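Quick log. Single chain, no ligands specified.
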Amino acid sequence: MASLVSDVLCQIRSGSRALAPHLTRAYAKDTKFGADARALMFQGVDLLADAVAITMGPKGRTVIIEESWGSPKVTKDGVTVAKSIDLKDKYKNIGAKLVQDVASNTNEEVPDGTTTATVLARSIAKEGFGKISKVLILWKSGENCFIGCCWSDLSVN
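-> predicted structure:
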């Protein structure tokens, strides 16, 4: 009788997890911080911008995009090239998706200039990531200066 009750309880518990998915265990997320994450994200930005930049201007080259169905697509449109890029590394893909959003938003506002917006986004990202690392260095040196000043005040008194 006790084994029958435990079998029924096990069935109820496993069935309740199907009804209440918040009770099941979720997988942990892979996280990165600092310079490593910024470097990987910028690699994705750079890769996408390189692919789009060759279509810039009247002498820009065409790009052939492999479609999952039908024949390949030949285009010089920056937003089409940007949307077709999907990177395997998820951190690089995050950077690429940020620039894809820039190209898509530019295409919605003004149907032309997506390539220029993508190249500008790469420059902004490069400068921004550079400034972040410099600010962290300045913050650390300012913090050390503050600690040194406080320490000298404490030792005098």
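Confidence is low (pLDDT under 50) at residues 4-17.
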